[in-house]
């Protein structure tokens, strides 16, 4: 493996590690019985972060410029906003 | 024309155009019956005119698809048709069976026709679009099998291209789903459930594959863009078509007694159905912009681009308008449906057949690549006349549909159906005027085959672009 | 070498075929719609959703998340190997990815079997309707993704790709990452958030 490939792989390996950790934390939050809107939003935040990592490093969008650079981020933004709006409203904190 | 057997396509194309004229004549009669209810009564009652209008559409489109296949397949497979004789024989079988069926509709009361043709033995009649007597349906299956044998063997023993394979999958699917027209359960819910397997899975499933492959073929021929590029687009488009179209069947299952989840499945997947049509538009314009040469048949390129745009508008946008369950709750079966039906059928299927005819006919009539300038100008006039009048038909029907939905279903004091029909009369009149313009456009189209036949054809301009 | 690196850094198009990326975008849109539909429908049935969400097997879901993440990482390694022209390593990583994908299908299949044995189906209630629809639609994508990876693994193994020519591998990899990406949102949304 040449140094260029090594440099290209390193962030991917980190991505994998970080995602495994975030997944385990999410699981712990799930089984711990932690409740409430903030826990839900935190879990969603982890998921969005993971999604961004996958887009940037696994899909390689980090090295792309223009529209395609942001296609995954925009999708995450869209999904993230819609889901959070739905959860915030249904939690009743706005009342 | 590279292969002699491609010539059988000409018969099919001529029959298609002839039946097209019949369809439009009945369309104009039908449009008038919306406002003058007893026009031509009792000779041609509304229900018969409607049946003839829709059945002729389907039959002439099938003629068009078969003609397109007979022209396209040998060229792609790089060999003659397995049996041109069979193709000609099936042409006459299909034409005579079709003509007899239409005459049956017009001359015999429908119940009498059912009795005459032994509908009791295997009842399949009496359902919208599938009104054909059972023997006609059996005839269609025989013709389809012979056709598939001819096309299939040619494709399998020749060069296999993506265009040919996608076309073959589409045509096989067309035949297979037609078999559900023989399934006629007593349970009304089941009846409708499987009825859509013919109707929906045809026009929003396998027909789109046929559309995609014909469009790809014409674009390969007229733009000179690499086959690989075009094939890749075709793959993605058909993948998206099948993902959205198959489960999208659910948008017909909202209020007919099927489980609730269809409201979600139908809404979500059918809301995505415009995507493949949008991709088709992007694809067509992209390919034409990247063209390696200017093709002398400008009319064919215009039809191809027109198909991509109008299919997206008619099938995509107008379909989306009323596909979501909460919207469809109010619009179901109103003139909104008629608006969508008109522009979708015209934009997707009428126009793709006309695209193919426009591309192939000059060669079938012994020219090198294109008709004379005068003929092409007239053909392009007919393109605009028909397309613009169809846009207006659609807009007027949409107006009628919105008003109808409001007055009959949404307002605080809903009015009865016939009262509403009178209130939207103005829209029907305007639609009728647009319909007459469409008929004129069609006549201009036919005229374009007869002018400038002695003049030299348009010559290829060389470009470096 | 450094020229190549610079060229790689100012790419305007993502790795793989553009057509695949258009497909990916369309697929992501379908899932986004489904996720939003889940969220907004839940607003009217919060208690019901919370009650039945608790019946799901979270441990299985976490195992599946780890399987997909790891499969994606293996696929990244496969792309890295083929970029160096190392077909043997690339094929090996692809098969490892296939293994993880199959593991996912196996675990998820077990969950479905469990639901079926309790007589749960799409008409049981709104939560199950969404849960089953969403996960099954994704399940089918995993099946497609695994098939794609198998085809690539075979072709890479036959040495059909090189350091210079491996766009198919990148396309397949991008599709697989999309399948992973969707699950990353699906998992917390359906199994955890309440």
Key structural traits:
heterotrimer, A: 95 residues, mainly alpha, 76% helix, flat, C: 194 residues, Four Helix Bundle (Hemerythrin (Met), subunit A), 7 helices, disordered N terminus
Fold and architecture overview:
The complex is a heterotrimer of chains A (95), B (465) and C (194). Chain A is mostly helical and 95 residues long. Chain A contains 3 helices and no strands. Chain B is 74% helix and 0% strand. In chain B, helix 10 (274-289) runs antiparallel to helix 11 (298-321) and helix 11 packs parallel to helix 14. The radius of gyration of chain B is 22 Å and the shape is globular. Chain B starts with 7 loop residues before the first helix and ends in an 18-residue tail after the last helix. Chain C has a single domain, classed as Cytochrome c oxidase, subunit III, four-helix bundle (Four Helix Bundle (Hemerythrin (Met), subunit A)). In chain C, helix 2 runs antiparallel to helix 6, helix 2 packs parallel to helix 7 (167-192) and helix 4 (58-83) packs antiparallel against helix 7 (167-192). Classes of the chains: A mainly alpha (95), B mainly alpha (465), C mainly alpha (194). Chains in contact: A-C, B-C. Chain B binds chain C through residues 232-233, 235-236, 239-240, 243-244, 259-261, 264-265, 267-269, 271-272, 275, 279, and chain C through 17, 19-20, 22-23, 26-27, 29-30, 33-34, 37, 122-123, 129-130, 133.
Task: Tell me briefly what this model is.
Chain A has 95 residues and is mainly alpha-helical. Chain A has helices spanning 3-31, 37-58, 71-91. Chain C has one domain: Four Helix Bundle (Hemerythrin (Met), subunit A) (Up-down Bundle), CATH 1.20.120.
What is the quaternary state of this protein?
Answer: heterotrimer
Uncertain parts of chain C:
1-8
Distance between the ends of chain B: 26 Å
Structural class of chain C: mainly alpha
Please outline the major beta sheet of chain C: none
What is the CATH third-level topology name of chain C? Four Helix Bundle (Hemerythrin (Met), subunit A)
Relevant CATH superfamily of chain C: Cytochrome c oxidase, subunit III, four-helix bundle
Number of helices of chain C: 7
Overall structural class of chain B, as computed from helix and strand content, comes to: mainly alpha
From the N-terminal CA to the C-terminal CA of chain C, the straight-line distance is: 51 Å
In round numbers, the mean pLDDT of chain B is 95
Radius of gyration of chain B: 22 Å
Q: What number is the mean pLDDT of chain C?
A: 92
How much β-strand is present in the residues of chain C?
A: under 5%
């Amino acid at each position: 493996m040449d140094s260029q490939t090594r440099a290209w792989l390193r962030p991917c390996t980190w991505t994998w590690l970080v995602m495994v950790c975030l997944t385990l934390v999410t699981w712990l939050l799930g089984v711990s019985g932690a409740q409430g809107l903030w826990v839900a939003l935190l879990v969603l935040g982890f998921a969005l972060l993971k999604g961004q990592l996958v887009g940037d490093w696994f899909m390689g969008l980090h090295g792309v410029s223009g529209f395609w650079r942001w296609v995954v981020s925009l999708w995450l933004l869209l999904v993230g906003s819609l889901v959070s709006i739905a959860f915030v409203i249904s939690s009743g904190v706005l009342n | 024309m590279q292969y002699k057997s491609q010539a059988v396509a000409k018969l099919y194309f001529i029959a298609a155009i002839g039946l097209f004229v019949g369809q439009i004549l009945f369309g104009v009669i039908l449009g008038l019956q919306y406002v003058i209810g007893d026009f031509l009564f009792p000779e041609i009652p509304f229900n018969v005119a409607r049946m003839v209008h829709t059945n002729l559409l389907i039959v002439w489109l099938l003629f068009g698809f078969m003609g397109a296949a007979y022209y396209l397949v040998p060229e792609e497979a790089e060999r003659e048709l397995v049996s041109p004789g069979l193709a000609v024989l099936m042409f006459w079988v299909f034409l005579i069976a079709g003509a007899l069926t239409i005459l049956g509709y017009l001359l015999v009361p429908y119940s009498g026709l059912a009795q005459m043709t032994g509908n009791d033995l295997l009842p399949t009649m009496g359902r919208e679009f599938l009104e054909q007597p059972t023997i006609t349906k059996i005839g269609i299956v025989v013709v389809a099998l012979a056709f598939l044998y001819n096309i299939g063997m040619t494709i399998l023993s020749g060069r296999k291209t993506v265009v040919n394979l996608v076309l073959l999958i589409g045509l096989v699917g067309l035949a297979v789903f037609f078999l559900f027209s023989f399934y006629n359960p007593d349970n009304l819910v089941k009846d409708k459930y499987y009825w859509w397997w013919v109707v929906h899975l045809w026009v929003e499933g396998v027909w789109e594959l046929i559309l995609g492959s014909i469009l790809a073929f014409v674009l390969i021929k007229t733009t000179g863009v690499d086959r690989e590029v075009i094939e890749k687009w075709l793959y993605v488009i058909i993948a998206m078509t099948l993902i959205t179209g198959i489960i999208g069947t659910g948008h017909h299952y909202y209020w007919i007694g099927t489980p609730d989840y269809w409201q979600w499945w139908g809404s979500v997947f059918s809301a995505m159905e415009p995507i493949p049509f949008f991709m088709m538009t992007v694809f067509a314009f992209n390919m034409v912009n990247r063209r390696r040469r200017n093709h002398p048949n400008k009319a064919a390129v215009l039809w191809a681009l027109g198909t991509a745009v109008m299919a997206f508008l008619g099938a995509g946008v107008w379909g989306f308008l009323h596909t979501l369950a909460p919207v469809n709750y109010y619009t179901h079966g109103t003139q909104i449906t008629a608006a969508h039906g008109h522009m979708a059928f015209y934009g997707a299927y009428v126009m793709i057949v006309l695209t193919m005819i426009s591309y192939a006919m000059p060669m079938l009539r012994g020219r090198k690549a294109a008709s004379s300038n005068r003929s092409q100008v007239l053909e392009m006039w007919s393109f605009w006349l028909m397309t613009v009048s169809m846009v207006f038909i659609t807009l007027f029907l949409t107006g009628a549909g919105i008003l109808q939905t409001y007055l009959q279903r949404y307002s605080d004091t809903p009015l009865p159906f016939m009262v509403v029909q009178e209130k939207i009369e103005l829209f029907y009149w305007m639609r009728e005027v647009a319909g007459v313009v469409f008929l004129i456009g069609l006549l201009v189209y036919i005229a374009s085959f007869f002018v400038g036949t002695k003049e030299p054809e348009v010559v290829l301009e060389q470009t470096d672009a | 070498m450094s020229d190549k690196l610079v060229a790689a850094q100012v790419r305007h198009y993502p790795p793989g075929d553009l057509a695949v990326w258009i497909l990916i975008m369309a697929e992501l849109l379908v899932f986004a719609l489904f996720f939003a539909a889940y969220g907004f429908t839940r607003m009217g049935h919060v208690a019901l959703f919370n009650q039945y969400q608790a019946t799901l097997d979270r441990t299985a879901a976490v195992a599946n998340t780890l399987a997909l993440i790891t499969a994606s990482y293996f696929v990244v390694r496969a792309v890295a190997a083929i970029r160096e022209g190392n077909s043997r390593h690339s094929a090996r990583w692809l098969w490892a990815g296939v293994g993880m994908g199959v593991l996912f299908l196996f675990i998820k299949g077990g969950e479905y079997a469990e639901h079926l044995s309790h007589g749960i189906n799409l008409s049981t209630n709104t939560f199950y309707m969404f849960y089953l629809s969403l996960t099954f639609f994704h399940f089918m994508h995993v099946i497609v993704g695994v098939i794609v990876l198998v085809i690539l693994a075979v072709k890479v193994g036959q040495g059909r790709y090189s350091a210079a020519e491996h766009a198919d591998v990148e396309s397949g990899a991008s599709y697989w990452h999309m399948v992973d990406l969707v699950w990353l949102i699906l998992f917390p949304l359906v199994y955890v958030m309440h």
